[in-house]
Design brief:
With about 140 residues, the chain is α+β, with helices and mostly antiparallel strands. The protein is about 15% helix and about 20% strand. The protein has two helices and six strands. Strands 2-1-5 form a three-stranded antiparallel β-sheet, with helices on one face. A three-stranded mixed β-sheet has the order 3-4-6.
């Protein structure tokens, strides 16, 4: 049997990667994947959602670091999420989740005075972007 050198059995986690190469436990993020801090998604439909339905909640702060926005509705990127039907399964699911975390949800008819809105399904089709966090790709 041939003798083996110690380098064949060294712990790969303790070996250093060559200069300029990623090592074990490192990640490289391409520039095009980085988000701009102040760029918020907007609903391209831009339609009037008056008469649609939304989920009103007790006030809760935006989870993005250093953002002072406080929401009174289920939101995405600071837009009130709206559904055409009061009994839409996704609206009811989100209301249930808000109830589970103690936000006291109520399904109400959306009014433009609530602030800018976005269709839930347009938001979902856009990859579910939220303020300061990339949505699903």
């Amino acid at each position: 049997m041939e003798s083996e050198t110690s380098s064949e059995w060294d712990d790969p986690f303790e070996q250093e990667a060559p200069a300029g190469q990623p090592g074990v436990g490192t990640a490289i993020v391409a520039d095009e994947e980085l988000l701009e801090d102040e760029e918020l998604w907007s609903d391209d439909e831009g339609g009037d959602h008056s008469g649609w339905f939304c989920v009103r909640t007790d006030p809760f702060p935006c989870p993005a670091p250093a953002c002072s926005f406080v929401a009174d509705f289920m939101t995405a990127a600071h837009l009130v999420l709206v559904w055409q039907e009061r009994d839409d399964p996704n609206l009811l699911w989100h209301a249930q989740r808000a109830k589970e975390v103690g936000r006291n949800p109520r399904v109400v008819e959306y009014e433009s005075s609530f602030g800018p809105s976005a269709s839930y399904y347009a938001w979902e089709a856009a990859g579910r972007p939220v303020h300061g966090i990339r949505g699903k790709s």
